[in-house]
Write a structure and sequence with these properties.
- The chain has 322 residues and is α/β, with parallel strands linked by helices.
- Helices cover 52% and strands 12% of the residues.
- It folds into two domains: 173 residues, Rossmann fold (3-Layer(aba) Sandwich), CATH 3.40.50; 135 residues, Orthogonal Bundle (N-(1-d-carboxylethyl)-l-norvaline Dehydrogenase, domain 2).
- Strands 3-2-1-4-5-6-7-8 form an eight-stranded mixed sheet, sandwiched between helices.
- Bound molecules: NADPH dihydro-nicotinamide-adenine-dinucleotide phosphate and 1,3-dihydroxyacetonephosphate.
- The site of NADPH dihydro-nicotinamide-adenine-dinucleotide phosphate has 25 residues, from α1 and α4.
- This is Glycerol-3-phosphate dehydrogenase [NAD(P)+].
- It catalyses: sn-glycerol 3-phosphate + NAD(+) = dihydroxyacetone phosphate + NADH + H(+); sn-glycerol 3-phosphate + NADP(+) = dihydroxyacetone phosphate + NADPH + H(+).
- One of its GO terms (cellular component) is cytosol.
- Keywords: Cytoplasm, Lipid biosynthesis, Lipid metabolism, NAD, NADP, Nucleotide-binding, Oxidoreductase, Phospholipid biosynthesis, Phospholipid metabolism.
């Protein structure tokens, strides 16, 4: 299968399309905006979302979804909170294809991860999730990256692993999509927490504490929704947590950092952790789970408490075993 389409022409979708095309696939990148698709076709780059990363010859951009959906493998790279509506609206075009969700987050309306959202809508579709530590610019630059590709079905994951591995993206397979989708979603909330801490000058020791205790929250929640906690120690979990919590290339980290310094944030930037933190709070309440870091971050994001009040709250919790 040499044809792949990427639906959603943001930074990540564009980077994946470039890497796949560079590795010999014929790739179609679909943008919802006709102007954006036309501009990409003529400039041979995505000036709006991933500037300076040239398109290989076998990559074409279009705003014609019917044409894009002719490929047997479709990568869905729209932001998490758009995924359910996008898939529902275009179900007839995508339901018999191999679908790979490439977004990271929990849907606010259903409290479900990307793979579960697709499965709920299309129970018979072949669905998988791609997640792990990878900045779009690194992928587009051809720097080496390792990601996890997960599906419930072994044949589906084996086929997609071989089709989507590129010269520079090494894919590990997993049969625990719930662990993979929750690992990718939850790390963004902890990255906002780390950004807040660094922006507010709380120091690197505080960041390490947030990463470690945040990881513990991630594992607890993932286990309760049916994931194997060991999956969270992999690329889509620990791996992505390390990347996102320690790099100012991360939009989630930078969002927290800006709030920590008191700067204003750009509402047009995709910061998946903000909505995901709210969805995690619904889940934590439903499952009666203690998630102190996520709770505190949600209260800060909602403007209910200040960062110094958050520090006081976290430090004054009853002492416990690690
Ligand atoms: N950037 C990165 O380094 C990485 C991102 N990801 C994940 O990939 C997902 C997408 O992020 P990213 O590409 O960075 O986001 P961007 O902010 O770069 O782009 C979002 C894209 O989604 C499009 N879009 C938004 N809503 C819809 C919709 N309803 N239908 C169709 N297209 C839509 C936007 O179109 P328009 O331009 O018309 O607004 C835009 O092209 C996120 O879940 C993110 O966590 C994962 C790994 C790395
Ligand atoms: O998921 C990512 C890296 O793996 C990208 O992180 P941001 O969305 O925070 O930029």
């Amino acid at each position: 299968m040499d044809q792949i389409s990427v639906l959603g022409a943001g930074a990540f979708g564009t980077a994946l399309a470039i890497s796949l095309a560079r590795s010999g696939k014929t790739v179609t990148l679909w943008a919802r905006s006709e102007d954006a698709a036309r501009s990409m076709q003529s400039a041979r780059e995505n000036i709006g979302r991933l500037p300076g990363k040239p398109f290989p010859a076998s990559l074409s951009a279009t705003s014609d979804l019917t044409q894009a959906c002719k490929a047997p493998i479709l990568l869905l790279a729209v932001p998490m909170q758009q995924l359910a509506d996008f898939a529902a609206l275009n179900k007839s075009l995508i339901q018999y294809k191999s679908l790979v969700a490439c977004c990271k987050g929990i849907d606010l309306k259903s409290d479900r991860g990307p793979l579960a959202v697709l499965e709920d809508l299309m129970p018979d579709a072949r669905v998988a999730i791609l997640s792990g530590p990878s900045f779009a610019v690194d992928i587009a630059d051809g720097l080496p990256t390792a990601l996890t590709l997960a599906a419930r079905d072994k044949d589906v994951v084996d086929m997609l692993q071989s089709e989507l591995t590129t010269d520079t993206i090494r894919l590990y397979s997993s049969l625990d999509p719930v662990g993979v989708e929750f690992g990718g979603a939850l790390k963004n909330v902890i990255a906002i927490a780390c950004g807040l801490a660094m922006g507010a000058g709380l120091g690197e020791s505080a960041r390490a504490a947030l990463m470690t205790r945040g990881f513990s929250e991630m594992q607890r929640l993932a286990a309760r929704v049916g994931a194997d906690p060991a999956t969270l120690s992999g690329l889509s979990g620990f791996g992505d947590l390390v990347l996102t919590c320690t790099s100012d290339k991360s939009r989630n980290f930078s969002h927290g950092f800006k709030l920590g310094t008191g700067a204003t944030v750009d509402p047009n930037v995709t910061v998946e952790g903000v909505a995901t933190a709210k969805a995690v709070m619904h889940l934590a309440r439903t499952l009666d789970l203690d998630m102190p870091i996520t709770t505190t971050i949600t209260q800060i994001l909602d403007g209910h408490i200040s960062i110094s009040e958050a520090v006081e709250l976290l430090l004054s919790r009853p002492l416990k075993r690690e």
